[in-house]
Amino acid sequence: MKITYFTRFRWISSGFTLVELLVTIAIAAILLTIAVPSFTRLISSSNTDSAVNRLGRSFAYARSEAVTRAENVVVCTSSDGATCSGNWGNGWITYVDADDDNVFDAGEERLKVEDINSLAVMFALRDDNNNTLAFTSVCFNSLGEECNGTVTSVTFTATANGESSSVTLNSTGALSL
Fold first, then answer.
1. Rg of the chain taking only CA atoms, in angstroms
2. Is the residue at 71 inside a domain?
3. Where do the General secretion pathway GspH domain residues begin and end (predicted)?
4. How many CB atoms lie within 10 A of CB 6?
């Protein structure tokens, strides 16, 4: 809207012309076209980093609790937060495995629940020889070591929209991000 008024010595205009407005909108559209793909990559990268960090913290917590309690503590996949089911991309439960059967039974203490469905990531598990693994739980014993001892190390890699991040767990229970 352009307003024109007269002062004692000259005409003064204020406001924007239609051409100025259209040029501004065109520049904003070009900047958004450039920024949106980068923003999508940033969100995917943030989601994979968050999922891996949460998984790593859960492993560290389970290991610490196993040593503190002198009992096996298990981290298992969970799609509902109440039972061990689903895959690592849904979330997981950390619980005390009182009867050492690696199964979340009624009466066993649930320590922590992580739901990562909103992050929309998928996990791939590989051993140190790059073989694909398909297990749904990790157990820590009273020494802080991985109970099952089936592999020397496992790398959990979270991926979303081409972005990835990983955490590696070795048989001694040590983590590396």
1. 27
2. yes
3. 51-173
4. 8
Decide if 15 is inside a domain. no
Whole-angstrom CA distances from 17 to 27, 127, 165 are: 16, 65, 50
The model carries a pTM of 0.79
Report the distance separating Cα 95 and Cα 175, nearest Å: 19
**CA–CA distance, 120 with 99 (Å, rounded to integer):** 34
CA-CA-CA-CA dihedral for 137, 129, 67, 70, to nearest 10 = 60
**With 0-12 CB in 10 A as exposed, 13-18 as middle and 19+ as buried, what is 65?**
buried
Helix (H) or strand (E) holding 166: strand 163-170
- d(CA 149, CA 70) in angstroms, rounded, equals 18
pLDDT digits (tens, 9 = 90+) for 74-101: 999 998 888 888 889 899 999 999 888 8
Which band of pLDDT confidence, cut at 50, 70 and 90, is reported for residue 4?
low
Q: Which residues, other chains included, contact 70 with Cβ-Cβ below 8 Å and sequence gap of 6+?
A: 142
Separation between Cα atoms, residue 85 and residue 80, nearest integer Å: 8
Assigned domain for 129 exists? yes
